[in-house]
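Onboarding guide, step 5: your first structure request.
Type a short instruction followed by the sequence, for example:

Predict the 3D structure of this protein.
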Amino acid sequence: MRVWKQLREVEIGGRDFSAFDMDIEVVNPGDDPLEFDITLYNLTDETYNRIEKGDDVRITLGWAEAEQDTVAVGELKRKRRTYSNNDLLFQFEGEDQTEDTVRKRESARWRDAPVNGIVEDIAGLIGLASEVDSVPGTIDGIWSITKDRKIKEWLDELLEYAAERTGTKWEWFVEEGTLYFVEKNSTVAEAPKLSYDGLLLSIDEKNDEDVTVETLEFEAMLDPRLRKGASVVVSTDRFSGVYKVIDYEFISSSIDGTHLVRGDVEATDEVQEYTPFVQ
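The system replies with structure tokens like these:
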């Protein structure tokens, strides 16, 4: 029987802390920015004091012999010492550094430009890559952004233009240096199949009165490809089809061996159309 070795790597301020015992949580709660919480054990005071707010943080999770990826590139916002059962713990919290870019204020103008072209230009203006779905037509005349509003507010306005021209709902989000501006029902990457023969541990309907689209909540062994916007093939006796990840949480601990991903997936148009491949 093959035993898979868990992989967790943490860099803070350019220093590698992967050899320390640690607990990691990386949360992307949907509309809010991706956040992370790292607890390190057995640091010296000297090492702790070298870590400063504003330091860059990189977290990589996965498996030594299989899928592994960077799941957070962020900025350290808070650090503190805490005690648990007489153990001294060192806790570090922060968020995806990409989020700060859409809080910027810039000015630019376009004439008779397509919405997707404007979004791509805005992404370049604030130093981000972009993945943008096509929006038919153009915004006639002059359309501009000014410094009296944040970039994120202008992106919200462009969502309304996109919805008017397509008759569908749109969303934007930023993660790891990329601005995504896509139809709600589209996906931005492929993720593994969720089945009880593979990663899946549990899955069920999400009980939420505000949910208008079929939404499932799941728990699975950690796979870094399960990210916001990724398409996921669900294959169980109760649920079958292609779903879209709308939020997720990675939880990993070298102390108790936890190495999981929890999240919610939303039905796409392909839920009823999906049929398993049979050789």
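Each response can be followed by summary notes, for example: Helices lie at 45-50, 98-101, 115-125, 151-166.
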